[in-house]
Amino acid sequence: MSHWGTSPVVLTAVTHSNSLGKPDVSGNGASVGRMLRFLGCGLLMGAADVVPGVSGGTVALVLGIYRRLVDAVRGAARVCVPLARGHFGRFWVSLRSLDFAFLVPLGIGILLAVGSLARPIETQLHNNPEEAAGVFFGLVAASVIFALRLINQPGTRHFLVMVGVGVLLFVLLGYQSGPVSDPAPVVLLGSGALAICAMILPGISGSFILLMIGMYAAVIGVISGRDFSDVAFFAVGAAFGLALFSQVLGWVLAKYHDLVTAIMIGLMLGSLRVLWPWPNGVGVISDVEGEVIDGTGLAWPSGEELVLPSALAVVAAGLVWGLTSLSNRFAQRV
After folding, report:
1. Where are the domains of the chain?
2. Distance of alpha carbon 301 from its chain centroid, rounded?
3. Lowest mean pLDDT among 72-76, 129-133, 234-238
4. Closest by CA position to 190, among listed 211, 172, 207, 213
């Protein structure tokens, strides 16, 4: 397994696992501390995934759990193979090898954040779009700086890849479909698979992918309205998409670590187009049901409009620095 550069946060997170990906559980206090840390990481990832333009993968990368996340998801996907073939003995053996100490608190945190924050964040995106976007812009811009440390042997090639990917995504994010109303179950399945692939990649927001294909309003409505049958279709699609995509991502990370990391940083740079606060923040759902106000337009604000979003961006960037430092210290203590 290739390591994640020189970042102490990342090295600590990786060394918490042995060669089988199982957590080191020496000491109950340390184990509980790690579980609380992963619960907090899940809360932050879930909150990020609700917002168009912010990726839970970015949060995982900055907090030093990204490689462990990919490996754990790959392990969970492999468990399904013997089950599908009817080899129940092998299934139970594979199931017991999963990194539950990592997956369970992280998953609980993500679910809690998505379930509890979907409506408040939607309200802020609607009522204060520029201010909310300023916060998200600061979070991702600071994350780019921290992510640069993760390239082991940076060179001109990596810089060119970052810029090229960033420019390409910047252009592609200018395209957006009209909203979809009352989507069929198969559409929810496909949307879940596509969105989850974006969510695990730093820089690509699953929520914004949903916005681009016209499904954001429908999915947010399903979650905030507790429509459990539609949520189930979306979740099944997400599970299948994550299982397939994690296998590919884990392989390329192990084989082409620095190049893939440079691509990920480029994705984060390109996503800043969505997060540019003016004129409409990250894009909002208007008072007209189902209508989406585009968040990819670019404009320069007047003096009064510039101050508060800019100040919030600086505060958010400081928050990223604080969370990264706190995560590092907490990981070393537990």
Report:
1. 8-333
2. 29
3. 129-133
4. 213
